[in-house]
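Class, study these two lines:
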Amino acid sequence: MSAQRLAPFEEIVERHGATVLRVCRAVVGAEIAEDAWSETFLSALQAYPQLPADANVEAWLVTIAHRKALDQLRARRRRAVPTAHVPERPAVPAPGLDTELVAEIAALPDKQRQAVAYHYVAGLPYDAVADILGGTAAAARRAAADGIAALRRTYPTTAAERGTPARTHR
């Protein structure tokens, strides 16, 4: 048994909760991201005591989030929601991500969307992305690069191109 001890789970949620939510929103969209986030931390809470003390907790949580997000998508696809009129719902912007950018990411093919979310949004290295998606780090790098290239073609990069005022950093 290692002499290292795991941090209290509350600290893990506090430290990595925002990253996991951003990843969930980038992968499944704002409407069901919070459900995926909740499921991620419920599952993680059960498995946390068995986690090795030297484990990459962020990559572990993103892996769980990936699986829970896919579960949410599958469950949503199985549910029928008949309605004569669909009420308009305002888009919920992801903290730290432009709403238009989230929509552009959502339009990417699955592997590209996931690779972009895990590498660029969550900041995971390509080998961790490969572990989550299955495959090699080179394939994860290629999928992320293809996704970024597609975003550069479709998403305006400056505030002037988007027609929004530039933000000033304080």
Notes: The chain has one domain: 9-79+94-156.
